[in-house]
Amino acid sequence: MNLNETGLFAGVDEFAADSLWVEAAALMQQPSYASALVSYCEAVTARVPRLLPANKLFARKQRYLVCFVLICLYVQWLEGRGPAPALALLQRSAPGSPRQISDFITGLRDRGLIIATSLETDRRTQILKPSLLLMREIAHSPLAILTASELCAPQVPIRPQDLGMDENLLAFWLALSAERYARKDDLFGPFPIIVRHSERDAGHLVLCAVMVEALRQPAAIRKASGGLSYRALAERFDVSRQHISNILDEAAEKGWYCVSAGGELALMPDDTLLQFATWVAGQMAHYRRLTLAIAAKTAGARVTADAIGSEA
Question: Which residues of 270-301 are buried (b: 16+ CB within 10 A; e: fewer)?
Answer without folding.
Answer: eebbbbbbbbbbbbbbbbbbbbebbbebeeee
